[in-house]
Amino acid sequence: MSEDLLRALPELLLTGAAVLGLLLGSFLPRTRQWPVRALAAVTCVAALAATAARWPRPGTSVFEGTYSVDVATGAVRVVVLASVLLVLALSGPSVRGTRRETEFVVLTLLAALGAVLLAGADDVLLLTAAYLLASIPLYALTGLAGDSWGTEATMKYYLLGALVGVTMLVGLTILFGLAGATTYPALARALPGAAPAVVAVGATLLLAGPLFKAGAVPVHFWVPDVTEGTRTPVAALVTTVPKIGAVVAVHRVTTTALDTTTVDWRLLVAVLAALTMTLGNLAAFFQDDARRLLAYSTVSQVGYLLIAVAAAGRSDLAVPGLLLYLAAYAITNLGAFAVVAALPRLRALTDYRGAFRRRPGTALALTVCLLGLVGTPPTGVFAGKLTVFTAAFEAGLGWLVVVAIVNTVASLFYYLRWIAPTLRTDGGARPDDGFSLVPARTAFTAAALSLAIGPLAGPILGAVGPLAGPVVATIGTVLVPT
Question: pTM of the prediction?
Answer without folding.
Answer: 0.93
